[in-house]
Specification:
The protein is α+β, with helices and mostly antiparallel strands. It has one domain: SH3 type barrels, CATH 2.30.30.30. Helix content is about 20%, strand content about 30%. The chain has a 5-stranded antiparallel sheet with strand order 4-3-2-1-5.
Length: about 90
Amino acid sequence: MGVCPGQIVYSIAGRDAGRKFIIVSIMDKTRVTVSDGDLRRIKNAKLKNLKHLKLTDRIISPLGEKIKNKERLTNAEIRKALSNEGNIETD
């Protein structure tokens, strides 16, 4: 499964285990930055190793397009998009 901006992921390791995030940027093959618009705001996105994330096949297209086009993305947009998505059980 590929990784792209706007993709929904779940943290499976660390203090934020079980929290839902979106991928904000891809740093390299193994690391991405994630934000939930609440505890991890867009300006202070969390650097996470991919092996500490549960990837989903859901991508929030409007947010992904904004990130790719380097448009302004707000924390409220992230919170709203994540709250509209259903919960996925973590293993």
